[in-house]
TrEMBL record:
<dbReference type="InterPro" id="IPR008962">
    <property type="entry name" value="PapD-like_sf"/>
</dbReference>
<protein>
    <recommendedName>
        <fullName>MSP domain-containing protein</fullName>
    </recommendedName>
</protein>
<feature type="domain" description="MSP">
    <location>
        <begin position="32"/>
        <end position="151"/>
    </location>
</feature>
<dbReference type="InterPro" id="IPR053012">
    <property type="entry name" value="ER-organelle_contact"/>
</dbReference>
<keyword id="KW-0472">Membrane</keyword>
<feature type="transmembrane region" description="Helical">
    <location>
        <begin position="226"/>
        <end position="245"/>
    </location>
</feature>
<dbReference type="GO" id="GO:0140284">
    <property type="term" value="C:endoplasmic reticulum-endosome membrane contact site"/>
</dbReference>
<dbReference type="Pfam" id="PF00635">
    <property type="entry name" value="Motile_Sperm"/>
</dbReference>
<dbReference type="InterPro" id="IPR013783">
    <property type="entry name" value="Ig-like_fold"/>
</dbReference>
<keyword id="KW-1133">Transmembrane helix</keyword>
<dbReference type="InterPro" id="IPR000535">
    <property type="entry name" value="MSP_dom"/>
</dbReference>
<dbReference type="GO" id="GO:0012505">
    <property type="term" value="C:endomembrane system"/>
</dbReference>
<keyword id="KW-0812">Transmembrane</keyword>
């Protein structure tokens, strides 16, 4: 997988990009993709590999193009890393840890899922999609971003995998936390195996707690939104009832006055 970098490029004016911006603005919720899992990719054994999966679904009414980036391009194999999703379509992204990489450093890495609205008749040719994403800045307001952390299962068993993957990593000596940049590891200052496992276990637990917290926060926000909608509907219904009652009272009063005048 090639090294990727964020570039602050100004996208050229073209019908494809203009259509992407228009499609993004038409989506009321401002969200084109539904990501599952929403916050954390959990890796698990699959034969001799460590594999994580991410399912992305286009919840917009127009087609979208997606692209996957990571903080450690040399560490993972991602398939497919780019593509086009028609409305309501889904795709499962497989993230495989490359052999020879350190297992215990997975929790330090992150992934970024980006997407942008495109014309429904856009080509899904990988080369054309690569050219499209070269012209788009990740900081553009038309690009939707979803950030995912990495984690191992809480009770992950490393037995039988030491011959394929490293079981302990060195210290981070340099590098930044930007997608596309790769931290470098020194060979000294390594902690004992037991300490590494305990730290990894703690990081996995924290990652799961953070994931649960984010889900609860999202649920609370949805509940608040529903409460506001319910209140607004109640107010509108009350106004409508009052208006109908006023019209009915006025109509009855007019009929009563007409009846009295007829008697006289």
């Amino acid at each position: 997988m090639a090294r990727v970098h964020f570039a602050n490029l100004s996208p050229p004016e073209s019908p494809m990009i203009e259509s992407a911006v228009n499609n993004f603005s038409e989506h009321i919720d401002g969200e084109m993709l539904r990501i599952k899992p929403q916050f954390t990719i959990t890796f698990a054994k699959s034969g001799s590999d460590l594999v994580g999966t991410v399912e992305i679904t286009n919840v917009d009414s127009k087609a979208v193009s997606y692209k996957i980036k990571t903080t450690a391009p040399e560490k993972f194999r991602v398939r497919p890393s780019t593509g086009v999703l028609p409305p309501s379509a889904s795709v499962t992204i497989n993230v495989v840890l490359q052999q020879g990489q350190q297992i215990n450093t997975i929790n330090r890495e992150k992934f970024l899922v980006m997407c942008i609205g495109v014309a429904n008749d856009i080509s899904s040719n990988p080369q054309e999609l690569a050219e499209l994403w070269k012209t788009i800045s990740a900081k553009s307001g038309s690009v939707e971003q979803h950030r995912l952390k990495c984690a191992l299962p809480v009770n992950f068993d490393e037995s039988g995998m030491d011959s394929v993957f490293g079981s302990s990593g060195g210290n981070i000596t340099s590098g930044t936390d930007h997608y596309g940049s790769v931290p470098s590891y020194g060979g000294g200052g390594m902690t004992p195996m037991g300490g590494d496992k305990q730290m990894a276990h703690l990081q996995q637990t924290i990652a799961h707690l953070n994931d649960t917290t984010h889900r609860l926060e999202a649920q609370v926000k949805r509940n608040h939104k529903l409460q506001w909608i319910t209140c607004i509907l109640f107010v509108l219904l009350s106004v409508a009832i009052v208006y109908i009652l006023k019209v009915e009272i006025k109509s009855n009063a007019s009929q009563y006055c007409s009846t009295i005048e007829g008697h006289h």
